[in-house]
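Escalated from tier 1: nicotinamide-adenine-dinucleotide holo job.
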Amino acid sequence: MRNNHDSGPRDRRIVVAGAGGFIGGALVRHLADRGHTRIVAVDRKPLPEWYQRVVGVTSLSLDLSDADNCRRVVENAHTVYNLAADMGGMGFIERFRIQCLRSILINTHLIEESWRAGVETYFFASSACAYNTDLQKVPTATALKESDAYPAMAERGYGWEKLMSEMFCQEYTAERGMKTYIARFHNVYGPWGTWDGGREKAPAAICRKVVEAKASGQHDITIWGDGEQTRSFMYIDDCIDGILRICASDQLIATPVNLGSSELLSINQLVTHAEQIGGIRLTRHYDLNAPRGVAGRNSDNTFIRSVLGWEPSIPFCVGLAKTYAWIDSQFNARKAGAATVRDHH
Ligand code: NAD
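Tier 2 regenerated the structure:
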């Protein structure tokens, strides 16, 4: 990973909210590897349930929907990354809209307390679910560009929370002068993420199903929807690289920007990739009543390319092979009785 954009002093206090989760955990590990010495990692989950815990990092189990906890963690901080949200794949966000909406409390308190504490840089993890769903009704839908969020018709619950929290960030810059950054992530995947239990997303779910089919000898797979829904998927390393690049760009202050791959795939193609990695062919069954989300979604990277001269580029087949290998090892560890990331949920 090239990281010339992450060139500030290493002793600034950095807060990562949602650090017990997939992306927050990867960000903490990356910052620690890069030599940052004053990282504060915060998540609501009890510490033993965090996906990754990094030696030398102050790790706190606190609920950040509580203003007092936010005040406590941002004291003397230079940078705050907000990656905390109550979320999951389509199965979760279509079913638990209230939980998704309540994540507004996290950003609302965290940004206010960050501003009061004089934080210099504040990052918010938004989502492609903030985009107008009317533009995503066919699998061949054109890639979404940043202006496509308005007029607003976001994903109910989860997407509206993201859109409102984006607006908070923009107004804290406009009215109060705090530097805020907003990235709209498009489907992030990779090792050390949720792979089982109901919150997992398509790439992890499909890898797990292939691993399970191999282990059981039952060579069937159930796919949610007709498999023709299209998405792009960004490998975790590109996501972390992108977050740091975005936060180093003055042009992107208070400006939502896509952070996603533009390699479009159908879910059926995803299954084919996973089968090839697993060295197996499965009989496909389609559950047309399962949650499937919008019909088609891709990331238009014209804007990020024009500003940063960069965009996520790790090929899906490369990232999926690493993800598959990791899920396979988790599956086998669990079979052997060891604790796994899934057991931590
Ligand atoms: P994740 O579920 O693995 O991590 C989120 C973490 O936030 C969890 O560990 C959870 O315990 C924590 N959290 C929830 N409520 C909290 C609270 N009140 N106080 C403190 N911590 C709390 O999810 P992720 O994939 O790492 O996503 C990180 C961010 O990126 C989220 O804001 C998510 O909405 C956004 N995002 C992710 C994707 C993706 O594909 N993974 C796509 C778009 C947007």
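The longest strand covers residues 121-127.
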